[in-house]
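Below is a filled-in request sheet from our internal design queue. Each sheet records the structural input a requester submitted and the sequence that came back. We keep these sheets so that new team members can see what a complete request looks like end to end.

REQUESTER: design group, bay 2
PRIORITY: normal
MODE: inverse folding
CHAIN LENGTH: 218
BACKBONE (tokenized):
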């Protein structure tokens, strides 16, 4: 019996390896921030909807999931905030832009290309559709890199592997240099509001596109 199980495991591993080999990857680079990453060709790169957005991806044949990277001025603080306090600010930013039913599912510290980062997952809704997002905030020398994955609640677990794939491919120098033009520093509260507004904007744009396509088809 154990021999059959071992054979089955080997076949599954082989199938996964073949699938990975067939999947082509594209490369994105942002020289200003010394940032590079890879993403599968099953994702489509769309024009960023806001100036602070470096990259906006979604599935080629679907509206969800979406992946985006935003750069904002680094939070101004005399002392380092606790992880719990940073998560509370993140949640508040969602609620302040109208996502009043937002809730934190989980949060923890992670490392992204050698940099300590905050990783948090939240739920919220727009109309009758429930969403789940995963936000990773990577503090650099004078900016913050914000990587956000948004999906419907039903599709989140299925597509979460794509988030992990992209996040693990991010390359940043160990000692982040200043960008060519340093962003103007902003108060902490404004930054967190901006983050929530960005998430809300992406969701609203996607819902608008979905409604427009549906009306055109009818």
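RETURNED SEQUENCE:
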């Amino acid at each position: 019996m154990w021999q059959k199980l071992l054979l089955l495991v080997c076949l599954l591993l082989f199938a996964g390896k073949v699938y990975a080999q067939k999947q082509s990857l594209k490369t994105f680079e942002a020289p200003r921030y010394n940032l590079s990453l890879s993403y599968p060709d099953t994702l489509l790169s769309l024009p960023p909807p806001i100036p602070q957005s470096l990259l906006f991806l979604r599935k080629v044949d679907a509206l969800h999931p979406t992946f985006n990277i935003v750069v904002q001025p680094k939070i101004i603080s005399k002392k380092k905030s606790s992880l719990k306090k940073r998560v509370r600010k993140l949640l508040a930013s969602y609620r302040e832009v109208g996502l009043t039913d937002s809730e934190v599912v989980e949060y923890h510290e992670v490392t992204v290309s050698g940099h300590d980062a905050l990783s948090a997952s939240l739920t919220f809704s727009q109309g009758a559709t429930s969403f789940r997002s995963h936000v990773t905030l990577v503090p650099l020398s004078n900016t913050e890199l914000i990587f956000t994955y948004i999906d419907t609640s039903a599709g989140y677990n299925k597509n979460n592997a794509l988030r992990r794939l992209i996040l693990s491919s991010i390359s940043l120098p160990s000692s982040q240099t200043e960008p060519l033009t340093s962003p103007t520093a902003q108060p902490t509260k404004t930054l967190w509001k901006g983050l929530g507004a960005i998430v809300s904007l992406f969701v609203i744009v996607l819902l608008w596109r979905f409604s427009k396509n549906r009306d055109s088809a009818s």
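SHEET NOTES:
- Residues 188-217 form the longest helix (30 residues).
- The domain at 25-217 is CATH 3.40.1000.10 (Protein Transport Mog1p; Chain A).
FILED BY: M.R.
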